[in-house]
Amino acid sequence: MSRIGRLERKTEETQISVEINLDGSGKYSVDTGVGFLDHMLELFAKHGRFNLNVKAAGDLNVDCHHTVEDVGIVLGCAINEGLKENMKLRRYATTYTPMDETLSFVSLDVSGRPYLVFNGEFTVERLGDLDTEMIEEFFRSLVYNSKITAHLNILYGKNNHHKVESLFKGFGRALKEAVTIEDTLLSTKGSIEI
């Protein structure tokens, strides 16, 4: 069985297509026009062992905001679509991810109730061609559209690249565990609305 989500979204600002296989092996093809975001999505796919295809074209002549935010929206919707067929999930997962001097904490609940808590500070405005203020915006778009509760915390670190890398790797690892299929539905309500 493969749980696959596919979505294409076209606006006057961006054109985005995403396909994610939640039961993949970590293969990826990512081209958003924002090189640092591409690298982070590749890490997410590899460490989560998802097969991920992302193609985006956006108004990068303005800045990276619309592209980054919209990729988060479309990826979140694709994850949500991939989860619709089977909700007997492990549901919860927490990971600590070291990256040299940095340590991050990611905790997820695939609950149908989207919420983001983000605690992390950056000391530079950009990493490559990605504005660091867009890291939180990306994850907000992702979790609200996948209907996941996420707590993302950079516990400590100095290197900004390492901080972001740790979050993306940790999110991939936590999501992989949370969407693992179990033999029972983990809800006293009897349903999870994804």
Q: Which helices and strands occur, and which strands form pairs?
A:
Blueprint: E1 4-10, E2 14-21, E3 28-31, H1 35-48, E4 51-58, H2 65-83, E5 92-99, E6 102-109, E7 115-119, E8 126-127, E9 130-131, H3 133-146, E10 149-156, H4 160-178
Parallel strand pairs: 3-4, 7-10
Antiparallel strand pairs: 1-2, 2-4, 5-6, 6-10, 8-9
Polypeptide structure, described:
This protein is an alpha+beta fold and 194 residues long. It has one domain (4-178): Imidazole glycerol phosphate dehydratase, domain 1 (Ribosomal Protein S5, domain 2). It is built from four helices and ten strands. The chain has helices spanning 35-48, 65-83, 133-146, 160-178; strands spanning 4-10, 14-21, 28-31, 51-58, 92-99, 102-109, 115-119, 126-127, 130-131, 149-156. The longest helix has 19 residues, at 65-83.
Structural class: alpha+beta
Indicate the overall shape. Answer: globular
**Major sheet: arrangement of strands:** 1-2-4-3
Query: Could you name the CATH topology?
Result: Ribosomal Protein S5, domain 2
Number of strands: 10
Distance between the termini: 19 Å
CATH architecture: 2-Layer Sandwich
**Count of discrete domains:** 1
Unreliable spans:
none
* Proportion in β-strands: 25-35%
In round numbers, the mean pLDDT is 94
Query: What is the number of helices?
Result: 4
